[in-house]
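yo

u said u wanted the structure for the complex thing, so here. seqs first:
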Amino acid sequence: MTRVLIVSTGVPGRPGVLADALRQLAAAGARVTLATGAAAGKVTLADGAAAVHGVRTAAKLPGPDKREHAGAVKGRKLWLRARHDPVLGALARTADVLVALDPHAVHTVWQFARRNRAAHAVNGLTPALRAVAERAAAPGRHRLRRVLRAGPSPAVAAEALGERAGRLLERVARKGAGRRVLRDPRGRRAWRLLLGAPLLGDERRIRWTERVAGRLLELSLPAEAGAVRAVAARHTRDTGAGADHLEAAAHAEFAAGRIPVFLREAAAAQLALADAALARDDLAETTRRFAKVIPLLFNRAVHFDSLGSPSARDPYGYLAGLHTSATGRALAAPRGRRVPAAAPPPGRPRRLLFLTHTNVYFLTEIMARYRARPDVEVRHLELTADDGAALLTKQTGRLIRHQLGGAPDYGDALRDVFAADLAWADTVVVDWCLGHAAMLATLDPGTARVIVRLHSYEAFTVFPHLLDLSRVDDLVFVSEPLREFATAVVPRLRQPGAPRTPVVTNAVRLDRYRLPKPPDARFALGLVGVSAIAKDPRWAFRVLRELRRHDERYHLVLIGKELDAGPNPVAAAYHQRYAADVADLEGRGALHRAGQTDDVPGALAGVGVILSSSVRESFHLGLVEGAASGAVPVVRNWPFFAGQRAGAGSIFPAGWVVDDPDAAVRRILAETATEPIWRAAGAAAAAHALAAWDWSVTAGQYDELILGDPGPVSGR
Amino acid sequence: MTRPHRSIGRRWSRVTGPRRRPDRGRPHAVYLAIGFPPAAKSSAYRMRETANRLYAQGWDVTVLTIRRESWEREFGLDHSLSAGVHPAIRIVEVPLERAELDTEVRHFSRARSLDPAAWATRARHEHLTTFPEPSFGGWAPALTEAVLRLHSSDPADLLVTTCAPYVTLAPTWALWEKHRVPYVVDFRDGWSIDVVNGVEAFPPGSIAGRWESRVLGAALEVWTVNDPIARHYRERHPAIAGRVHVVRNGYDDDSVPTGARTPDPVAGLRFGYLGTITFPVPLLAAVLAGWRTARAADPLLGNATFELRGHIGAGAAREDNAYAEMLRAAAGDGVRFGGPVPKAGVAAVYGGWDALVFIVTGGRYMTSGKVYEAYASGLPVVSAHEVEHDASDVLAGSPLWTGAVGADADRLATSFRTAARLAVTATPEQRAATRAGATRFARAAQLDPAIRRVTGAVT
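structre next:
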């Protein structure tokens, strides 16, 4: 007689198949016991088909196993219960055929098979029937096998020893992660060494890292917690669990108002998985993993809601992982165009298409100019005007998938949006280098010339990395600092076949700002636009406080939309300090918030000194408008670009730019020392602004850019 | 052309047939056919006949496949299939197997035992990093090495490679790159077209897309099993449009009954399905529901039986999956699952039925091989598949076909009733006419012109 032990995690899912197999087993002379993880009473079998045994419940497990059971995978859960079930143990030791009825029962059968080395151990009912038949065909051989292979495998004892050692280690580690140890720098150093140890195992490394990092955060040591996570990340293999753990930890840091110090490691882990998926043609997984990279590397808290940016500090290095990854390269791969951009045919007006998504503010003068010209026909495609197109702009995942070679339906949808206008246009001007620019570049533009304008913040987003530059003829910048920065961030801009990268400043009519200023404007500092943390109004507050030590008549006027309470905890922290400053300065009568106004020239008439306190700007139109109004300009050497060859000084006269608040104070005191000095300095600034940046001057540059000969693309 | 042939040596898992080919001056074709008999797979029929027809047209043939033991894990072995292989054909087995179908738990690693599904996913990922095919991609290096080794021992004049699996394209390309051996790709269902859902399986720029484009670009001929698939390839790769040919599956003469049994409605009409049961579960549910309805409504079907024969599931799921459960649950409706049928028994099984049920997934890109047998059997055929389906084009000429009605249970019930009527009313002349109409789909008639063309081009 053959003794068969069938192990099932729960109630068998296919009772008909099981009943049939049990009938066949009985016919073959087998005696069957079904061990189930469910209560025995829940399994209904025909009378005599098999004995049913319910595996010991988890509630009856000893402490350590009960603890492990809670977090174990299903296969391990059943084994933890089975190994403490003496009845089942006896059945397994005497069984001739051990059968796993479902995938989660396999581990239990695998464990039993190591303890009963003479038995067949199979997965599935058909293999079980075959095993029974095989034993019936050669009973002597299997009897001999039982004699020769008596007793468990030595691996069982080794595993038990390893398990005990592991649990001891866990206990030690739990105690070692106590507050007293972690308060001590030597304790923290020891943990960093341990978590970077090569043989630790990823599962344990991740678990311990989270425990230690959690304790360090409780101890208000976020930088130490980040360092621990970074160390662990560098030593974790490229597994989904490791990457997901880092991603979750990074988002927890953002939520707590901190920039994770292990940001690049977290992104690198996701990129490695994206690359692995790409290598196996799994574009869905590649897209999913790359989509996780975006809120890490390009998180607004990192670049926009902080006064510094790792990308600004090291533009190439920060994104080096992206550029060298297979996924990054695939996304950046040039698809090219069948024919180069061509001059429009003679005999009809030039056809000019403006493509925008929401923000058309900086195109007002430009579009008006070409609409007024009889030799130019203008179309404006605003993507939010059509619900379908607007929806496509929000589907960055589909764009990524499409760039990788999948999502043909997305390509078809984009063709529906753009193809007709693209076929019509001689020149396409895309304002802002964002998703809509990348969407357009998924199509071969034919003979149309494509001009994309990058203002500023786009350089800190993913979109320039999704833009097929082989389908862009000119990537226009509004200032030299941005061009220098963008070419470092997007190295493809320096490679052969890259688009031209001209610099043409914003189009603005400055003459309307020339209004008379009252004498008391001399002591009014002005700041236009404080809605973004990048404007750093608190720098202006420092200047103001210092000035008021010399003369209490100095005060500050904030023109434009206020800084909001903060879209995330990082921004909220700045806003909190900003609000406290505003309350203090307003209480002293040193600050006036003019708010948003349609009459900026009128508001600027009362300003004697115009400030640019920003950490980053592309051109700072508000400052230029102030200068045009006759206010004395004082420009902070924008820190984001201060380390570059081209900073704020590449745009403005050297005398306007200051390195710190003290220098700003000195310049203001000197230029406002008397009313004649102040008025003369203001007049000089206004003259410079009008001569350099007024629309009467720059319009010609736009004509040259937009209406000029397309010419061959040659990089710079 | 005479030359002494060398032995191919002993470093193979198994060699059936001569290690050293007789020096008769015949050109040498290597046939890369994973799933060649005795593998009990539906594709084995086409493979067997391809090898036989190559031999018949003057080629010495060496078949390269994987070791037969690995098929035990899938659908098993059918030695009656091997009996029909010409004895001069050499079959070389490479020691490869599908580990994921292994049911011996002692062979499992600890990680696999703990989470078999996660282990399988990791294994698929590893395969894909070698070659873009989930279950077989990892075989590319071993198959390439085997083909090159075989060629170095006994040079090939032609390589015929049949897919699936598509991993055979890797050695095919390697032999072309290194030795410029001309090759034919018998693509059957194609790769870049998902014949089940009728959509592109992968974009041209993907890794698989680049492989397909590269290999097809230099192929002597590309064969597909129907016109829609051929059209897909002609449109996707216009440069090779003239080299894409349709070589339908057809039926083997020994698979169709020579006569028809006399239906006995009193004892109960016998309906049957023969084939691998892999179509969608809802389709089987619709067929069984239609059968139940027809049986309840029509006295002619009151005591009729419906027998399904073929393979269900592989590995641990062999005859233990949702289909098996559904069939057992339908036992009360006269439904019975009878297990697989060896090739030698196919004609007898058809001969024991009064009407056939032809169930197949997919749409216009899908044909299946069984449709030709169904047609040639001379029995009434109930079709359970999409209306717009290549099988419809094949069966359209049969007077004993009830037509395609999709997967609607009520319409299928009507088809069952129609087939029952046809079974008892069909005249011997009608049956003979049906068989005669099917003769154009005899497998040899499909393969011979293609092989003749290739032979002419190479020799």
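The interface with chain A takes residues 103-106, 108, 110, 112-117, 124-125, 127-129, 132, 137, 200, 202-209, 315-322, 324-325, 328-329 of chain B (CB under 8 Å). Chain B has two domains: 14-250+442-458, 253-441.
cya
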